[in-house]
């Protein structure tokens, strides 16, 4: 007999880390997502009793995959009517050169193939599915998150989320969205959707309100897990590396974004000693390793910028020229006015507030950022540094009128008072 | 293999009653290509929006059913092993480069009714 607590812990850990493995292996046998899920659930349930009796297997994921696949085979043999009436999943035949390593090994070895997880995630993030469905399916199928938890994380009812997932599964099977990894030529079109889903999961968790945010913090962990998994499976894709590095850096600073009273802290006021050093070091290594690949994409450049900000021992010691150089590379690949606005921060440090102010005025003429509170906020800061408090106060008032976050409004109100007095 | 209907959305159909072979050249070439590849099961080109008549419970009206920028200019059915393969074929339609687009829908059932006749008259 093995200790019940140890078994429960092993099962919970395997559920978290290996769900995708086990499901991917089972889907290939069941060729029906609902049947595969059901068999995997059953396998996890049976593991408890079996492992208490016989001990925790050396390879729990392989044990679970074998158990789940046996159940799928049994179900298919026993009663075909048990299966949903939807068409079977399409698994295109692949040439011998494309066969997965281990496919020949039969029932036991084929379950821990990285390829299975990639098939799964690329199917969940197929562009023929809407992004909300992609996100929900990825959480359900790749991470094994129960539907009620997904519903809570996205603030919709359980039945809404259930219907969304059911509809997506129905489309996969009816329209024959294939259960396969995109070919290399298709990757440039298909990979961004996968990256966007992981990034969206992360930001949804990251920007959660502080109250009742437990489930949302879990989203951050799921996103981190997916980003790491994807990088392990596709280490040669610079944007996959960029996403993982970007999430590592952003997440490393998670604890310091607000003070003890829940008040937002600016980057320059955050306690750098509380940043998660191991994650920053890992991100640094990933970025250095990937930046050699030319030309760097948007996520990798964002990660490199975030990492440089984070690596400086203090805000004042930030390597501004290097950050500006990275922004100069980022603007052409991501010509967003918000990127140009962010670029004015290092620009002011390198070329002076005057030059940055000129760029702000260009952005005002551009018009796309009208209504975006950070445009007047950055302008106000520059004017203040140029010793023009009267104009700064006007810009701060504009920013105040656009801000809706209480913490930010309090900060801006203080700035308006200071600059009105000194004007 | 599965069948997919491809609905062609364009500002209007090029297949006007008085269209010359030159007007239709691009459509015809594309249709020939698909027919040669063996992926096209059937195809219909429709006449322009001005020829359309719509029926609702409230009565009969002149024009396409939906008041939108694009109309269905034609449709065809193709055969493909999966959605990715169908999309790869459908996206080669010239309309995609010309401001329109296509909608791909899995076919449930159907086909030519036996003893189909050419319109006469």
Characteristic terms for this protein:
heterodimer; A: 423 residues; mainly alpha; 18 helices; 67% helix; B: 121 residues; alpha+beta; four-stranded antiparallel beta sheet; two-stranded antiparallel ribbon; 6 strands; 32% strand; globular
Structural account:
The complex is a heterodimer of chains A (423) and B (121). Chain A is mostly helical and 423 residues long. Chain A has helices at 4-30, 33-54, 60-78, 114-124, 131-142, 147-153, 158-174, 187-206, 214-233, 238-252, 277-291, 298-311, 320-333, 337-351, 353-366, 374-385, 389-402, 406-422. Chain A has 18 helices and no strands. Chain B is an alpha+beta fold and 121 residues long. Chain B has helices at residues 25-37, 83-90; strands spanning 2-10, 40-45, 53-56, 59-62, 71-80, 101-106. In chain B, strands 2-5-1-6 form a 4-stranded antiparallel beta sheet. Chain B has a two-stranded antiparallel ribbon with strand order 3-4. In chain B, β3 (53-56) and β4 (59-62) form a beta hairpin. The longest helix of chain B has 13 residues, at 25-37. Classes of the chains: A mainly alpha (423), B alpha+beta (121). Chain A binds chain B through residues 90, 92, 126, 128, 174-178, 182, 186, and chain B through 2, 81-84, 87, 106.
In short:
The complex is a heterodimer of chains A (423) and B (121). Chain A is 67% helix and 0% strand.
